[in-house]
Amino acid sequence: MNIHEHQAKELLEQFGIPAPKGFVAFNVKEAGEAVQRLPGPVYVIKAQIHAGGRGKGRFKEASAGEKGGVRIAKSREEIEQAAEQMLGATLVTEQTGADGRVVNRVYVTEGVEIDRELYLSALVDRATSRIAFIASSAGGMDIEQVAHDTPEKIISVSIDPASGYQAFHGRRIAFALGLEGKQVGQCVKLIGDLYKLVLDKDMSMLEINPLIVTKGGELSCLDAKFSFDSNALYRHPDVMEMRDLTEEDPAEVEASKYDLSYVKLDGSIGCMVNGAGLAMATMDIIKLCGEEPANFLDVGGGASKEKVQAAFKIILSDPSVKGILVNIFGGIMRCDIIAEGVVAAAREMEITVPLVVRLEGTNVELGKKILAESGLKITPADNLGDAAEKITAAVKEAA
Question: Which parts of the sequence bind ATP (predicted)?
């Protein structure tokens, strides 16, 4: 789960981590009132969406002006003008795709005199099973581009969970960033506080870009992007309250209500599978047969008839779906339950696209019998390869 920058800054403040002061605004009036709460004379107005590259982004609406999603203001009038242009407009960045994201809130912060821009992030390094800090002296830039062009500017420091964070970790990062004097001590404390934040809140990723050195020689988190482990959110109701459903795909939100793992993709064949590994294999074999999957959808090991129906509705809500492949291996899951759900969904929704079903495992013969006696246009498959060939052929023929 991702959160907005202003919410990330609130968490930074809770852990005593330095960042420019700011206030979120949901309308023009609230944005203007920030002048009374910030020192000035320079203010920064930032569009709040779950995507990076806001400063370089562009709004679809001409009324939003030619500037991007991060703007400088020197008066209340300029703040309100920027907020009026941004709120309700659609911001397109490299990370949003062509559709962009609608801006429903803005963040007004104090202006800061910047001496240097640095990059800092923390993530779960699966290779070492540790929290790793990634740091670079090339802050404020696309870190992927930095890694490609100048990899020597990036340093990675892993922290052994047995010993935990130690001051030498922070010093190593500080020296790599070219920090001097009191800034080294600041960096040691900053990295320690960020490490505690990552652990305490079960974060999967933390990114500070840029981490700045101010003209006064102080370290400060100018921007912050946080992502949390969704499987651990039950332990953090305060973080759950920060969830913004308007920033998420409606189909994925609907899927979460039924405990379905769903991710929309760009292909034409909808997939309903039980088990993440089997789902990945299903998508791979669809591509091998010359088509593209329209989604990843794992109904899990104990799906009910109602859950299967909900899965079908979510798949068919995508207009790009031209065919559906159901691939079920019945271990904990019973094939007859899946078959009943498929039949019920097909009848309720009057499915008009080709539908291929491959069942294997517990009660497979009963499941196949239910499908065969349904009177519906459902194509059975003997194995995964057969299923993929049949659905891709049907989609190509229908096209």
Answer: 46, 53-55, 112, 117
Q: Is 209 annotated as a binding residue?
A: yes
**Which member of 119, 165, 258, 262 is catalytic?**
119
For 336-359, give one letter per residue: b (16+ CB within 10 A) or e.
Answer: bbbbbbbbbbbeeeebebbbbbbb
Count of positions (residues) in the chain: 399
Q: Is 112 annotated as a binding residue?
A: yes
The first and second tokens of residue 12, run together, are: 């930074």
Residue 245's Cβ-count burial label (10 Å; 0-12, 13-18, 19+) is exposed
- Which is catalytic among the residues 5, 84, 207, 247? 207
Q: Is 119 known to be catalytic?
A: yes
10 has catalytic annotation: no
What domains sit in the chain, N to C, each tagged with a CATH number? 20-110 (3.30.1490.20), 114-240 (3.30.470.20), 250-398 (3.40.50.261)
Q: What is the pLDDT of residues 92-151, one digit of tens each?
A: 998 888 889 999 999 999 999 999 999 999 999 988 889 999 999 887 767 777 777 778
Residue 196 annotated as binding site: no
Per-residue model confidence as pLDDT tens digits over 200-257 = 999 999 999 999 999 999 999 999 999 999 889 999 999 999 999 888 888 888 888 8
Contacts of 379 (CB under 8 A, 6+ apart): 354, 355, 356, 357, 390, 391, 394
- Known binding residue 68? Answer is no
* 8 Å CB contact between 300 and 260: yes
Yes or no: say if 297 and 273 are a contact pair by the CB < 8 Å rule: yes
- The annotation status of 29 as a binding-site residue, yes or no, is no
| Torsions phi, psi for 269 (to 5 deg) | -110, 115
Q: Give pTM, 2 decimals.
A: 0.80
